[in-house]
Amino acid sequence: MKVHHVGYLTKRLDKTLAEFLRLGYHTEKEAAYDSVRDVNIAFVQNGAYRVELIEPAGEGSPLAPLLSRYKNTPYHICYETEDLEVSEKELVEAGYTVFQPAAPAPCIDGRRVEFLLHRSMGIIELLEV
Ligand code: NI
Fold this sequence. Notes:
Number of helices: 3
CATH superfamily: 2,3-Dihydroxybiphenyl 1,2-Dioxygenase, domain 1
Radius of gyration: 14 Å
CATH architecture: Roll
Strand content: over 45%
Order of helices and strands: EHEEEHEHEEE
CATH class: Alpha Beta
Number of domains: 1
Largest sheet: 8 strands, mixed
Bound molecules: nickel (II) ion
């Protein structure tokens, strides 16, 4: 599956973004608020590599608990699929568990994403393109 981005958890999006820019990335999408997940999201690019910076906006964000485990770090890889339902079915049969069902991603043009978990893989995201 084609990789769309690597998701990078950050405690302070503005500060982490500045470090990505220092390392040669450019801003693809300015920081924006995702009300579905209560997070701020920005996209940066460096050549073929796209990184999504994700900052939990409040204690109530479903991603806030991850900060106590991961700090500033990559934590998911997002893959493109032309059919979310077909890919989900294949992955579930291969042992993945859906832990965040398909929902629109306001910061990716409203396209649907979902998150799955596998004990030997960790978190992956599917993006419908
Ligand atoms: Ni993502």
